[in-house]
Protein 1
Amino acid sequence: MMDKPWNNRAWLFVVPVLIIVLFSSLVPMMTVVNYSVQDTMGQNNFFWNGVAWFQGLLDPTTDIGGRFASALVRNLIFSIVILCLELPLGIAVALCIPKQGWKVGATLVLIALPLLIPWTVVGTIWQIFARQDIGLLGAALNAIGIHYNDTQDPTSAWATIVIMDVWHWTGMIALLSYAGLKAIPDAFYQAARIDGASRWSVFRNIELPKLQKVLVIAVLLRFMESFMIYTEPSVVTGGGPGEATSFLSLDLVKIALGQVDLGNAAAMSIVYYLITLTICYVFFTIMTQLDQRKGV
Amino acid sequence: MASITLDHIAHAYPGAPGAAPHYALKPINHVWQQGRAYALLGPSGCGKTTLLNIISGLVIPSEGRLLFDATDVTRLSTEKRNIAQVFQFPVIYDTMTVAENLAFPLKNRGVEKNAIKRRVDEIADLLDLRPVLGRRARGLTADAKQKISLGRGLVRSDVSAVLFDEPLTVIDPALKWELRSKLKAVHQALDLLMIYVTHDQVEALTFADEVVVMKDGAVLQIGTPAELFERPAHSFVGYFIGSPGMNFLPATVAGREARVQGTVFDLGASYAAPANGAKVEIGFRPDYAMLHANGGIAVQMLKVEDLGRRRLGRFAIGGGEAIATLAADADLQPGDTAGLTIEPGHVHLFVDDLRVEGARA
């Protein structure tokens, strides 16, 4: 017999949450699952279609499969590019934040400013900023002879989206890193000075290891958000020119709401969801292992 | 080779302009000798860590000069001084193994590889770190980590001094004793100048050849443990050193006699009459005062504490209270009248908190 006290009344407290989750997430998701295994000829008549949608989606030689694969690759490249830019930049910014005085507060507010702007507004700001006729950035670049057109040239469009994301989110990594840096006791820096460590060595052997956990969280947050990015590119480029900036969620919305291709959209949603879940799980595993790893 | 000279060193943290400086450390003159172990002892906030940081260069003093041998290093940066310091909390480099941690100060100074290896092995042997040399430092226990910090402080053989800032704070009480004797052994083996900051008198008295007692940013006395115990220069030293501390009773003095509200104490030396209005006290240690069943000065017992090895009695005298040791054969209870005797020469006279030396004749 188990001596541990078991009290099933605990379930009572979980029930309200379960009900809310059921109606807000589970039921809609089951609808999606339902769509993903059925086809329709219109008139709200659905019939069983098995895993045909999934087969098409995961086969890059088909139309939809190719489209999905290229959106996925595009999105992964985008996520990796912005991480490679935002992470070092955020840490660098955090290292440059003043240590004391009124400048600390002023700097932190300035850094946090982009984070407080609604995403659609961020998109609008950059959409106008990038215009060749009235946009400060677009007009200025063309005036000094650099060909820049974010609505027709894929390179310009990508550059705009990437720089916009860096502008929008580097502050978050900087703030997280700053908090991590603040938590390092002074004795570490003093000991490093006495040990004759170089500035680089202090960064490599003290600051970076102490930032490790914070950075894993920052990478997770930034990766997930950039992997699901929708609002800003949809306002700035609308996924264009052509398909150049059509990331997964943009493409999904186009298929589901633009083409009302419910079967493909549902299958895509589920695969998209599973990819996200897998990546989350991988990150979670890494984080918990970092916590537990001792010695060796 | 190396001695460290404090020449009128004082420090005031910058305050409001125009305001009189508030000294965290009042002017101090002292020479620290090579090969000796010193302890800076005092309550929290007495300026001992400030003094230590001035020596290591983490704080630049607002007044005075600091000399290493004959070289003025007052404004030299920490890296340029030959100083090692161990902090209150273990500082280890997470990314490195224990051996790499120990080698780090040497590596940064471009010491040759074989020499580093030899020195690291030597220090690891001294601190019993040999079995964990290859392990990553981050997974070790707090006391092992602090041993690594100690090791990093000791690894450079060319340092002018090794400074310790309450290094045993985070160590388990049972291990404290072991680490302290290890440090003492290391000091003897390496012949370094060591300065050890602590607020624990046992730590200070067992570690150091000479103890610097500080209070409110001022040095009250510098002396060997025996000197501090036998001849405290300041009433605070008498009170702070020893457990329990020295008894103090307000008194009036005439020649060889001190009177505490009618009770006469023999001072064993004659004293000039103190200035009018000065605070005059006699002080004696409980260790040299005995309470007997009868004989000596009659006092009223208040409380008896049995410490096992000895018994202490608190008693009323001249409107105040004092503590003395109970004689082995004295069966005294609170409320009893006891007889107090004090070994001659162990009643000290303090005028305005400073000990006055009498003329023995």
Protein 2
Amino acid sequence: MILTPEQQALLDGAKGETMAKVVKTLVMYGDAFGAERMVPVTSKYGHTVISFGLKAIKPVYALYDQLLDAGLVSGQKFTADPKPLDPNVPSSLLEDLVFKKIMYTDQKPYEEQLRRLGITSDDDYTCTCYLDEVGNKPEKGDVLSWAESSAVVYANSVLGARCNRNSGIIELMGSIAGFVPEFGLLTDEGRKASWVVELRCKHRPEAQLLGSAIGMKVMEEVPYVKGLDKWLGTELDKAACAYLKDFGAATASNGAVGLYHIENLTPEAKEQGEALIREGAQVYVIDDAELERVKRSYPVVWKDPEAKPQLCFVGCPHLTMQQLIDWTDRIEAALRAKSLPQVTVPTVFTASTPVLKEFEKTVYASKLRTYGVILSYICPLMYMNNPLCKKKAVITCSNKLRTYTSARYYTEAEILSIITTKEAAK
Amino acid sequence: MKQFKGRVIVPGTCTAEALVSRGGFNTLASYQMALMFGDKQVKCGDQNNPDIYKKPMLGKALCLPMTIGSTTGGMVLYTACSMGKQPACMLFSLPIDSLAASGAILGDVWTEAKMPVVDGLGEEFLAYVKTGMTVTVREDGVVEVE
């Protein structure tokens, strides 16, 4: 890798040993992928995936202390993934004990570290930092140093920014140095598609199911999706963006997709069309039967597969304002049709604090509460990331949550039906 | 004995018993419980990986195609290295992925752990090596399996 004189000086220790180690880490990272140079981080804000004060990862906090002691803070303010705890979310006494005394013992000191390192606000803990209400929305062509697979795939695909699938810690080091190695999704060549996905569905495919199917097939490669504009249109309106948020999260968690192109819809596909497709790209045809096959392939890892659902999570990734409104309308209609006053399974909807604050200003927030739905800023994945939750029958329409936990996946329509059935109330 | 040549990501040498994951190695799922509850043998906690589920990972020559899963993966590997709970080495049949590379490099630069990492050993390597075989990693990226 060829470094500029300034970068070489940093590597040689001009700003101290710790900064030299930060740059050495980034150089080795680039070397592993054949990067020839560093490029400046151009986005206004960063984003970190590490939002939790987990006792088990104390060495991370020690490393961050080392950075702070050396006077190294992020050169750009940043947002962070959602917090793992929220008193609004139902939990047993035993769960509270495990969360607070065993698992997340370092939450408060870690949040203080993040303040010192440069988090934008105590409200900005969310995986959907790119929503308007949060305001960490990169421009097309911006180079990012982010981690959080669902945010990275959205920024690359929907916003046209450029970011690799970085790991936690590395993303902060890129923000501290102000530059990142140029490879993979930062290059024009790395953004070309090696898979063509042809949609032949008769119904609008469920976002999280379609994303799962594509992720499992293409893994870390870039897919170019044909036929989705039939269902989403050719403009990135609120509905299309919400769909792509959920779709992308599933491609990134069920596979390792960092960028997708949607024909006639996402920015690079609109500009370059099929020129984005590599010669010899493989083809994956998806119809309704294929989606059904994928859905049936998910293992049920509940201790009792016949258990009645005990908890429902909707909002992984965090919901948009429009999704909250749409869900409120759908629940209202379903409850009315069944003459029920409230949902019959404890249900938590998750969204970022800035979105929830805006939502509270609408009539929908009080309606949703009346229907028994809990609103939270929590990360459902971290909530479920403990041995006790394996015994709990949790349902979700998030394919990311299904992948990483024992939560059972259902489509949105199925979730709506389950949480509004009289049988579940018994 | 058979030799395979790969690319050195983190230099070093070691000899250890092989532990083979034929599918993608989910770093978070594999290490989470062992790190959280102080398992001395660092048994794999990923129930979706039948090749290595519940098998001790500490000090083994971890042979795998690539890592998969959460972007916390690199951080988890770094944590394992900091605590002295890392494998003896990591040997990838495919080119290394960005999360594994991050973890391996963070471990090398920021901890005292010695964990040689070699990638690109090829499909034949993963087809040949079996759990329990003895693996020797040389400085130049040559891996001997017997």
